[in-house]
Write a structure and sequence with these properties.
The chain is α/β, with parallel strands linked by helices. It has one domain: Vaccinia Virus protein VP39 (Rossmann fold). Helices cover 24% and strands 30% of the residues. Strands 3-2-1-4-5-7-6 form a seven-stranded mixed sheet. The longest helix is centred in the N-terminal third of the chain and has 13 residues. The chain is globular. The termini are far apart. This is Methyltransferase type 12. GO terms for molecular function: methyltransferase activity. InterPro entries: SAM-dependent_MTases_sf, TehB-like_dom.
Length: 184
């Protein structure tokens, strides 16, 4: 864990990411009931800050203490420094879960369970690409074609797409995007 934390701290300092809210979050946030939100692997808080401004009480979770130090101190934001490889989500806890540019297959079933009834999931991360694309080298951090869609079978899918995109550093990449609601 310490090695991962140091690696992410260095990455956040040496290769800062953009600070504006992710477009998919901005587009679909209005579909969520304002209440409690979870921002998984929140980084420096670009989506966390946006959600707090929209009235959500946000659990901002990340491994990097440097990244969390950049998240605003706000009564609506609870910073949680944890290793997501061992962190577990509570059931029926969140009205909105945001997972952007992070993949933990271990957390996928927990994410479904952590949504409250009528809770909304906004999920976007990297997918396997061939050709001139910048993507994580470790295949554990890359979705396979349609994997994200299949992981959330049982939720009402509002939006799903796999597309070429530009990553946080302005490089060509490929992403899968999903917005889904938990119905009961």
């Amino acid at each position: 864990m310490q090695e991962d934390k140091e690696r992410w701290n260095i990455r956040h300092v040496e290769k800062p990411m953009r600070t504006n809210v992710e477009p998919i979050v901005e587009k679909y946030v209005e579909m969520a009931n304002v209440g409690k939100a979870l921002d998984i692997a929140c980084g420096v808080g670009r989506n966390t800050h946006f959600l707090a401004e929209k009235g959500f009480s946000v659990d901002a979770v990340d491994l990097s203490d440097y990244a969390l130090s950049q998240v605003k101190n706000d009564a609506k934001i609870k910073k949680i420094e944890v290793d997501l490889d061992s962190y577990n989500l509570q059931k029926n806890e969140y009205d909105l879960i945001v997972n952007i540019n992070y993949l933990s297959r271990r957390l996928l079933p927990q994410i479904k369970e952590a949504l409250k009834p009528n809770g909304l999931l906004i999920f976007e991360t990297f997918i396997v690409a061939h050709g001139d694309f910048n993507q994580p080298a470790n295949p554990e951090y890359l979705l396979r074609v349609n994997e994200l869609l299949h992981a959330f079978i049982g939720l009402d899918i509002v939006y799903y797409e796999e597309k070429d995109d530009i990553n946080l550093r302005g490089e060509n990449t490929r992403v899968a995007s999903l917005v889904a609601r938990k119905r009961c």
